[in-house]
Write a structure and sequence with these properties.
Elements: E1 6-12, H1 30-38, E2 40-46, H2 52-61, H3 65-68, H4 84-89, E3 96-99, E4 128-132, H5 138-145, H6 164-167, H7 184-199, E5 205-209, H8 241-245, H9 249-257, H10 276-306, E6 313-319, E7 345-348, E8 360-367, H11 371-379, H12 393-398, E9 409-414, H13 423-427, E10 435-440, E11 444-449, E12 452-458, H14 476-493, E13 501-502, E14 509-510
Parallel strand pairs: 1-5, 1-6, 2-8, 3-4, 3-5
Antiparallel strand pairs: 2-7, 6-7, 9-10, 10-11, 11-12, 13-14
Helix pairs in contact: 7-10
């Protein structure tokens, strides 16, 4: 390998971790498969938090949510936290951002009139913006209107069906009004190619974000018809919404609160009441949006090959969080089910040291906090003590599991009231006790609530997580063991910013 070191961090939005061709899913994503053949796929990779803001905070700071505390969209990220962009700058990189990070700034360092406090979040500090679509997508809409004279007067109406009478008020196979060449996926790909063309003569680090397959779940032609709904899997859910809601009050809230208009601009009604056929149509559209992203990734991969950069670039493909997609009668990213947290992770290292692992699959548990240390180690930069994750490069270089690697996965969810949802009020908790955390391995899953009884699932007998056995005396000793594991995890990873320093008779000492 040459001395140059490029990094391409691809972050798609709302992509389920089980929807990858190398894991047996029939999704048609040949370019992602091409990347996987060049790298290592991590089959049990999880985000640490949902929705977008908390998930991206963990991804880019390398910290569990209990440490960065950007616990919901709209909740600020403490300015004292470093991130992968700031750390990369120490190595001489100018980290570039195409996409977004959904980050609300620290109000102690930002005036209250800043427009970023009127949206779900802006861009995280440390990045050079080369392809932002603006706080309210205005940069994207401006790009479209210059090229498409039929742009609707209300820009968001581009995501309405071309034939609304045939689409109804639910999931649809109708194409969106916007042509594929002007889709948001095309926009972000164009911004990335512009940047890569200009940066190709120096080492670069690009965070390339795509909005899809995030809602609205409607695809432009020809992607809207790429999948037959009858071939799509049916949702994993209880027989009735009422049976599902009986498991926990928080689940009951979301089953009645999440409405279809959040996922289909033409939608009406409660999402939990969708029929199996409607869910399968939604999944067909979701897969079509994924295939559209894949096609544009192919353009970027081709450019890297044509310019001789394919063999000089570490490429990581991942997501901020996943999507319920009708499982447990839910849509979106919320609660405590794995469908919201299990995300894709592919690491393609161009160095010869990784030749022996190309095309392999790792089944160990990995987490989104591992992204930052992986990138920094590959750059030859130190990993901050505040980073909770661990580099994945040992898996990539040798295929062997590093000593002491985690045996379970952890994630958290905060359900305090925010302007577009009030679960805290429904459940009857307060601002500081509307939260849960999860510890999950291959056998059991423990869900701890700050102010409610826990949930406990025997995954060997109940992989769908329908039967809470927390009150079953037969599981008492096992439940206690997982409670202790949860406490030990939190004690081990609580904030360590200054705990490596100590005064001594010889002066200040520092431990790694």
């Amino acid at each position: 390998m040459k001395t140059r070191k490029n990094v391409l961090l691809i972050v798609v939005d709302q992509w389920r971790g089980d929807t990858l061709p190398m894991l047996g899913h029939p999704i048609k994503t040949p370019n992602i498969a091409r990347l996987a053949q060049r790298g290592v796929t991590f089959a049990n990779h999880y985000t640490q938090a949902v929705p977008c803001g908390p998930g991206r905070a963990s991804l880019l700071t390398g910290q569990y949510m209990m440490n960065h505390r950007a616990v919901q969209n709209t909740i600020p990220l403490d300015a004292r936290h470093t991130n992968v962009a700031w750390e990369a700058r120490k190595g001489g990189y100018e980290p570039a951002l195409v996409g977004y990070t959904t980050t609300t700034p620290d109000p102690r360092h930002t005036d209250a009139n800043d427009p970023r406090f009127r949206v779900l979040g802006g861009e995280m500090e440390g990045w050079k913006l080369v392809g932002s679509w603006g706080l309210k997508m205005e940069a994207y809409f401006a790009w479209v209107v210059r090229q498409w004279p039929d742009m609707p007067a209300t820009p968001e109406d581009m995501w309405l069906p071309q034939q609304p009478d045939r689409a109804g008020t639910d999931a649809t196979g109708e194409p969106s009004r916007v042509p594929a060449e002007f889709s948001d996926t095309a926009f972000f790909a164009e911004r990335a190619l512009e940047y890569l063309h200009g940066a190709r003569h120096k080492p670069w680090f690009l965070h390339l974000g795509f909005y899809r397959p995030h809602p609205p779940f409607i695809a432009p032609e020809p992607w809207n018809q790429m999948y037959d709904p009858s071939d799509c899997p049916a949702p994993l859910r209880a027989d009735t919404v009422e049976e599902e809601a009986a498991q926990h009050p928080l689940l009951g809230f979301y089953l009645e609160d999440v409405r279809k208009e959040r996922f289909f601009r033409h939608g009406k009604g409660v999402a939990s009441r969708m029929s199996v056929d409607e869910v399968k149509q939604m999944r067909a559209t979701y897969y079509g949006l994924m295939s559209e992203v894949d096609a544009h990734l192919g353009r970027i991969f081709d450019f890297l090959e044509e310019t001789g950069q394919w063999e000089d670039t570490l490429i990581i493909f991942t997501s901020d969080h996943a999507e319920q997609l009708g499982d447990h009668h839910l849509l979106g990213k919320l609660g405590y089910f794995d469908e919201s947290y299990h995300i894709p992770m592919i690491v393609a290292d161009p160095r010869k040291v990784a030749d022996g692992t190309r095309g392999t699959i790792v089944r160990e548990f990995t987490e989104t906090i591992d992204t930052m240390p992986t990138i920094l180690e590959w750059m030859g930069l130190p990993i901050p003590r505040t980073c909770d994750g661990h580099s994945l490069l040992p898996f990539v270089e040798t295929g062997a599991t590093p000593p002491g690697w985690r045996t379970e996965v952890h994630y958290e969810f905060d359900y305090r009231n925010i302007f577009y949802s009030q679960p805290e009020s429904f459940v009857g908790t307060g601002i500081d006790d509307s939260s849960l955390c999860v510890i999950r391995d291959h056998d059991y899953k423990y869900v701890h609530f700050t102010n409610a009884p826990p949930l406990f699932f025997d995954l060997r007998r109940d992989p769908g997580q329908f039967n809470n056995v927390a009150s079953d005396p037969a599981y008492g000793p096992t439940l206690l063991r997982y409670t202790q594991k949860m406490l030990s995890w939190r004690m081990r990873y609580m904030d360590r910013t200054l705990t490596g320093y100590a005064a001594s008779p010889e002066g200040l000492r520092k431990r790694a």
